[in-house]
Automatic annotation (TrEMBL):
Protein name: ATP-dependent DNA helicase
Gene3D superfamilies with a match to the protein in the record: P-loop containing nucleotide triphosphate hydrolases, Winged helix-like DNA-binding domain superfamily/Winged helix DNA-binding domain
Locations listed in the record: Nucleus
Entry-linked SMART domains: DEXDc, HELICc
SUPFAM superfamilies, per the entry: P-loop containing nucleoside triphosphate hydrolases
């Protein structure tokens, strides 16, 4: 019999061995994780290489067996003369059986990329689309062209659903396009089984997945049922998938390929530059009444007789602004998610028919707006990301004529949005991207948008169509922030010692020696306008010198300001931090926007330019002359807040 001591010694030995094994396991796990990372990165590189190789093929060629049919269909059925850039590539690639993802800006003509091929080959195209109203519009317009199409949604009447299910089994069906929602596809076993029969009969031509970014968690409108679409590529071998989106960020595209099981597929991307949109940041007044006055002037004078959208971030704001504008005699509708679907449709229709000059809406007024002559999109509150801003402002000027995208920016709005969205991963970074767009005074706004889409547009691509480039307005003035940074840091330390939390407004007050005396710093009030102080706080947030700290009350979430990871650098003797000073350029609120003074010839030139983006450069040259040359020089209301000659 071993003694207790022997047994204890034996246990210690085993423990030692176990510890060794634990160490080995940890090492192996670490190596495993490293290998997994490496494998993922190699796979991504391989997929990228495959995509790049496919992209090098000239898909816009005109020697395919179907070229003649494609041409005839374009002219005779769609009544169009020519393709817009990338449409032909998308059509040829999908007709060649490639899985592809088409990335085009809103209004560039994605629908044609699957509607036209559907008519060129026998069989049915299944179009998966997230929005019923969008599908209804498309089916209606296809039927107007005598193109047999149907739709099947969760709310379709029984007979229609039955007819849609039957046509999948019917070898003699005339239907060429069947529109379904992803939810319908994911939830209907009968639909899937009939689809398999259709496939077995060789009649399933392709899947077109509209708004394909909805697959990705990173896309701006993620829809869980889109994930189900991952089974299509395995289940229906040799049926090409054509995904379409206006979301171009690379991690969304990689994610979409992964979810749809089509890694390394062809990506067809057209430029995101919208040369006919004029981008402008306007200083937002702090009172709602003053905001209303600006909106009133814009609608009554600058956009007289034109139609547009005013976006805001809350239902309350949309109702208040709409009623305020109505009191001023303007015809505006209100649109938000709390309204009944029927009321929303009515408002949409009245706006579409120009009974309303503008819709004051939350982002619920989104996908499916196919009105070509939206002349202005005003953001009463900033969007929650550049991605959203691009989508929302992109609803302007789809006819290719000049339209204006005006954003009313003020620091407080950052916190209105951040306290609503902070709980989701990564969104604060997206919001700060939007803030950077608003407060940057020395970089063309178009260039900032381009950076977001991994594109590189030079100032020629802007053609003075943003407030920074307008009349070569690029501002080179910078303000040094070293001492401001130290003061702000000391105010935050001081408040912390007193156990007081500061909102951005309170921080500003303390900095400008306003508000409670115990929170103020000991130095002088900064020799800059308060509005520039606001920009500095926003800049420090964007650059991680300050961070937001969220606290909950029974009624709301409050954003307080804390020192960020970079602020400690401010104590270094060689610390340097400069911020370009934003210059508020003149903006005529009470004169018609330049588009209204375009002569007929230049209007033709601009609208043709959308038909052929390739010719854009030549055409925008002439546009530049007419658009910018004709700005009326009125002496009426101008918004110039910061005097450019003042010294900071
Ligand atoms: N080759 C073309 N020539 C002229 N007009 C075209 C061409 N292709 C499409 N269009 C027109 O462009 C408009 C926008 O097209 P479409 O609705 O397909 O855009 P989209 O890219 O799907 O936009 P969204 O992302 O907002 O859904 C439509 O009125 C369409 O008829």
């Amino acid at each position: 019999m071993p003694s207790a001591e022997d047994l204890e010694n034996e246990i210690k030995k085993v423990d030692k061995e176990l510890t060794k094994i634990d160490v080995e396991i940890r090492k192996l796990k670490k190596t495993q994780a490293q290998l997994q990372d490496r494998k993922t990165s190699l796979k991504n590189s391989l997929n990228q290489l495959k995509s790049d190789t496919l992209s090098n093929v000239d898909w816009a060629g005109t020697e395919y067996e179907w070229t003649q049919d494609v041409d005839n269909t374009l002219r005779n059925i769609f009544n169009l003369d020519s393709f817009r850039p990338q449409q032909l590539s998308a059509i040829n690639s999908t007709l060649s059986g490639q899985h592809s993802i088409v990335v085009m800006p809103t209004g560039a003509g994605k629908s044609l990329c699957y509607q036209l091929p559907a008519l060129v080959k026998p069989g049915i195209t299944i179009v998966i689309s997230p929005l019923v109203s969008l599908m209804e519009d498309q089916v209606r317009s296809l039927k107007n062209r005598n193109i047999p199409a149907m739709l099947m949604t969760s709310s379709s009447p029984k007979e229609e659903t039955q007819a849609a299910l039957n046509l999948l089994k019917d070898k003699d069906t005339k239907i060429k396009l069947l529109y379904v929602t992803p939810e319908r596809l994911a939830k209907s076993k009968r639909f899937m089984s009939n689809l398999q029969k259709c496939h077995a009969d060789g009649r399933l031509q392709r899947f077109a997945i509209d708004e394909v970014h909805c697959c990705s968690q990173w896309g701006h409108d993620f829809r869980p049922d889109y994930k189900f679409l991952g089974i299509l590529s395995n289940m229906f071998q040799n049926v090409p998938i054509l995904g379409l989106t206006a979301t171009a960020t690379s991690h969304v595209l990689t994610d979409v390929q992964k979810i749809l099981n089509i890694p390394g597929c062809l990506i067809i991307k057209s430029t995101f530059n919208r040369p006919n949109l004029f981008y402008k940041i306007l200083e937002k007044p702090s009172s709602q009444e003053d905001c209303l006055n600006i909106l009133e002037k814009l609608l009554k004078y600058r956009y007289k007789n034109e139609t547009g959208i005013i976006y805001t971030n809350s239902i309350k704001d949309s109702e208040e602004l709409a009623s305020g504008l109505r009191k001023k005699g303007l015809k505006v509708g209100c649109y938000h998610a709390n309204m009944e679907a029927e009321d929303r449709s009515k408002v949409h229709l009245k706006w579409h028919d120009k009974h309303y000059q503008a819709i004051v809406a939350t982002v619920a007024f989104g996908m499916g707006i196919d009105k070509p002559d939206v002349r202005f999109v005003i953001h009463h509150t900033i969007s929650k990301s550049m991605e959203n801003y691009y989508q929302e402002s992109g609803r302007a000027g789809r006819d290719g004529l000049r339209a204006e995208c005006v954003t009313l920016y003020r620091m407080q709005d950052i916190f209105k949005i951040s306290s609503m969205v902070f709980s989701s991963v990564g969104v604060l970074g997206h919001l700060y991207g939007m803030v950077k767009y608003c407060i940057t005074g020395n970089i063309c706004r178009r260039k900032l948008i381009a950076e977001h889409f991994n594109e590189d547009w030079g100032s020629d691509d802007c053609n003075q169509m943003c407030d920074v480039c307008f009349e070569n307005n690029i501002n080179t003035k910078e303000i040094r922030l070293e001492s401001h940074c130290r003061t702000i840091s000391s105010i935050l330390d001081y408040a912390d010692q007193q156990d007081v939390k500061l909102t951005a407004q309170k921080l500003l007050d303390a900095w400008f020696l306003k508000g409670p005396v115990n929170l103020r710093h000991k130095g002088k009030s900064p020799d800059i306008p308060r509005i520039l102080g606001e920009d500095i706080i926003a800049f420090l947030l964007v650059e991680n010198y300050l961070v937001e700290d969220f606290h909950f009350t029974a009624y709301s979430t409050i954003s307080y300001i804390k020192k960020g990871p970079n602020i400690d650098f401010a104590q270094d003797s060689d610390f340097v931090l400069n911020m370009p000073v934003r210059r508020y350029t003149a903006f005529e609120l009470e004169s018609r926007a330049p588009s209204c003074t375009l002569d007929k010839d230049s209007i033709k030139t601009t609208s043709q330019s959308l038909n052929s983006y390739n010719d854009e450069k030549n055409k925008t040259d002439s546009k530049k002359r007419t658009m910018n040359g004709s700005v009326p020089k009125s002496k009426k209301t101008k918004l110039i807040i910061i005097d450019d000659d003042s010294d900071y």
